[in-house]
Amino acid sequence: MVLKILTRGHLHGYAIAQLIQQLSDDLLRVEEGSLYPALQRLELNGWIEGEWGLSASNRRARFYTLTPDGRKHLNAEATRYRQVTGAVARIMGVRLVKGSTSGDGMGFSTSWKRLQLRLRYLTRHSERQRLLWEEMDFHIESMTHDFVGRGMSEQEARAAAHRKFGNMTRKSEESRATWIAQWISDAWQDLKHSFRGMRRDAGFTTFVILIAGLGIGASSTIFSVVNAVLLRPLPFRDAERLVWIANQEWSMQVRQFLDLREQNKSFSDLAGFAGIGVEDTELTGAGEAERLTSARVTQNFFPLLGVQPAIGRSFTVEECRENSSNPPATMLSYGFWHSRLLRTRR
């Protein structure tokens, strides 16, 4: 009905309500306050547009007009109405004149316009609230003026206008619910209330933030360790196929390893290391003496892991024999080579 009334031109809310009542010979009456949530919903859908102007009484009022999308929607609704009333008329034996049909014409562009309008209402919430109250005030003032013209006093007319319009705060909340989802509005109100409470008790807020920060930091540290040790794949070739074989508290004798390697029929290769000796080796002859951490490995240890030396070569079989006459061979880490040997050369 509102869309049909607006085909007559620019109208403000009070004029829309009055026209509906007049054209229906007082059979249809719009609940004054409920008109504005409906107007907000129609505007959000892009079916009407509102702009501020001056009324006949020289007061600021919001005038609404029908948009092209609103006209298409009106035609579609009129078609559906004729179909329903036609069906009822056939049942009741009443003959009706058929009218033309028209599609709704809704598409992507209309949906995009609706989204833009909702975002605009969301970002300008306070301004929209203020303008809505101004619009409802104009409606009440217009009703008051009509009641005074019927012989009421100013005070009686204003009280009657407020009773007829209804609770303005409630109508404002209903309109706000059309702008954004109710849960978003409630969440925003809860956040504002929480921040006000935090400002009032800054000491307790600081303590809670400190405890939360320590808890998050500890959790992050534990997760980093668990992720590095248990969750994250090892940085080696075919890490999911690597297996650790051990006995006697995560280690095994050299002879057992050699026997296992000779009789192996299940694994593609076997390599071993003799544990990590923390600071068990001393480096001398180039500046200050330094204690180093080392580990003894078999000659195929690095090839099995898919690790190739950046400089030089890996170990040979002869170098890894237990009673080899060759001098000991060592593979250096990149960090040690860069910080100690490269620096010494410079």
How would you describe the overall organization of this protein?
- This protein is mainly alpha-helical and 346 residues long.
- The chain folds into three domains: 2-181, Arc Repressor Mutant, subunit A; 201-231; 251-345, no CATH class.
- The protein is 55% helix and 10% strand.
- The chain is built from 13 helices and five strands.
- The strands form two sheets. It has a three-stranded antiparallel sheet with strand order 1-3-2. A two-stranded antiparallel ribbon has the order 4-5.
- The longest helix is centred in the middle third of the chain and has 30 residues, at 202-231.
- It starts with a helix and ends with a helix.
- 12% of the residues are buried.
Brief rundown of the structure:
The chain is 55% helix and 10% strand.
N→C terminal distance: 90 Å
Number of separate helices: 13
Q: Note the overall shape.
A: elongated
Mean pLDDT: 79
**Low-confidence spans:** 100-108
Rg over C-alpha atoms, rounded to the nearest angstrom: 42 Å
Largest sheet: 3 strands, antiparallel
In CATH's first tier, which class of the largest domain applies? Mainly Alpha
H-E order? HEHHEEHHHHHHHHEEHH
* CATH-assigned homologous superfamily of the largest domain: Winged helix-like DNA-binding domain superfamily/Winged helix DNA-binding domain
Structural class: mainly alpha
User: Percent range for helical residues?
Assistant: 40-55%
CATH topology of the largest domain: Arc Repressor Mutant, subunit A
Strands side by side in the biggest sheet: 1-3-2
CATH architecture of the largest domain: Orthogonal Bundle
Strand composition percent: 5-15%
Number of domains: 3
